[in-house]
Specification:
heterodimer; A: about 90 residues; alpha+beta; Ubiquitin-like (UB roll); five-stranded mixed beta sheet; 3 helices; about 25% strand; globular; B: about 250 residues; alpha/beta; Rossmann fold; eight-stranded mixed beta sheet
Chain lengths: ~90, ~250
Amino acid sequence: MSIKIRFFARFRELLGTEVSAEPTPGMNLTGLIKQVAAKNKEGYDAIFDEHGAFREFVILMRNTKRVDSEEAGNVLVADGDDIAVFPPVAGG
Amino acid sequence: MLSERERERYKRQMMLFGDVGQERLKNAHIFIAGAGGLGSPIAIYLAVAGIGELTILDMDVVDQSNLNRQILHNDCDIGKKKTASAEEKLRAINPDIRVNAIDQKIDEINASRLIGNARGIVDAMDNFPTRYTLNDVALEKGIPLFHGAIRGFHGQATTILPGKSACLKCIFPKAPPKEVFPVVGVTPGIIGTVQANEVLKYVLGKGNLLTNRLFMWDGLESRAEEICIEANPCCAACGTKESSPERK
């Protein structure tokens, strides 16, 4: 099973542009992103707070559909999924 | 009516959209919120294209550290109000348009009045709370909001048409934390130009707008990507479902 995760903006600088992941059966979206983000502590901390919850501004998309970050723990990932993870960029 | 001077000035673009298109641009009034990194290229390109009335708002003074990206302002403008500097440059760039400069902080109390009868709002701000205020006014008046934002080599843009597309709060329900963001001038140059292009297409009625699409620019990879977005029925700003706990 292979899943593509695309990071954008600051998350991309810390975790890479596009990562392919091989999740374990039954893994949910939160677990998958934690697994991939764990390779860089700064990247992980940019996405997750000290309790391991998504920071409230993080945007998650699965196959072009928005996923509420509070619901991501209930969303099982599937082969071929295209996941996008990004923060709002705020400067002007 | 276009003057002979205007016909000559716009000759090359009137090959694309004729008298009718140029008259549309001349009759348009666009509000630009911010005269900084994004506001500079937006204002310059809308001025040279012949948008007949530009209102540009900012509350800051030109600082040396602005000059790597805020191309409306020069070294000799340091210490001047950004609105005064912007007005002077835009009048010099195109004397055939009207430029209004507002030296004021925009907030939820004054925003609707300051934006007045403008036909569209361009987001050239540097923070999300003010962007949400612009979004609210766009929804209230039923006029487009041309969103753009940048950080470092990265940027994003989308066009919000109230009632027809996701609004800013549908896409970004929560503001990121405030920061002094790093930036290289080409990034607001690219994103601001995308926003100005959106304004021109909207006024001309040409092409496909960035509605329900988030344009994402990565300057390090020289890659532009697009993310499909959709309106959130529970959105705190534009949602139709009363169940949203945040809905006013």
